[in-house]
């Protein structure tokens, strides 16, 4: 632990990146699915009114199916808006981690270590093999990069 920011806390933050990216991917996929459903409903709504129109006071026609479909379109719109708000938050959190790593002044090797270990989710042994280093040397790269990131957080 250095001056209040522990290496473990930095690691925890870095590990969150892949979770954020996975959630972003899931949410973007869900938005596409909801938009498709919303479009189908909207198209149905625009095809024309049902022949079984109910007259209401004032002479305006009211189609219960049209109204139900319109409400469903509104529900899908609200769901999409909620997911978009969550996406903005997730993108901000992921970008914050990237900015933190970029501000740390890491060497190319340290960046690669961070990418493989924390962003891609490889185990320590896999990361060392990917870097073509021993696990002991890879651990030194890890410690060096985490200390540099700690220094950024302490500023």
From TrEMBL:
SUPFAM superfamilies: Sigma3 and sigma4 domains of RNA polymerase sigma factors (SSF88659). GO terms for biological process: DNA-templated transcription initiation. The keyword Coiled coil applies. Residues 17-44 form a coiled coil. GO terms for molecular function: DNA binding; DNA-binding transcription factor activity. Keywords: Coiled coil, DNA-binding. Residues 105-148 form the RNA polymerase sigma-70 region domain. The keyword Ribonucleoprotein does not apply. This is Sigma factor-like helix-turn-helix DNA-binding protein. The lineage of its organism: Bacteria, Bacillati, Bacillota, Clostridia, Christensenellales.
């Amino acid at each position: 632990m250095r001056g209040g920011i522990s290496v473990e806390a930095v690691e925890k933050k870095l590990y969150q990146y892949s979770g954020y990216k996975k959630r972003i991917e899931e949410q973007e996929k869900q938005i596409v699915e909801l938009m498709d459903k919303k479009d189908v409903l909207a198209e149905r709504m625009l095809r024309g009114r049902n022949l079984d129109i109910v007259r209401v006071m004032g002479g305006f026609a009211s189609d219960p199916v049209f109204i139900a479909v319109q409400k469903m379109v509104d529900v899908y719109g609200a769901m999409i808006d909620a997911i978009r708000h969550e996406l903005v938050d997730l993108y901000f959190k992921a970008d914050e981690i990237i900015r933190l790593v970029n501000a740390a002044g890491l060497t190319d090797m340290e960046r690669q270590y961070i990418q493989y270990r924390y962003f891609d989710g490889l185990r320590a042994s896999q990361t060392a093999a990917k870097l073509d280093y021993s696990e002991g040397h890879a651990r030194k790269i890890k410690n060096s990069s985490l200390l540099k990131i700690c220094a950024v957080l302490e500023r």
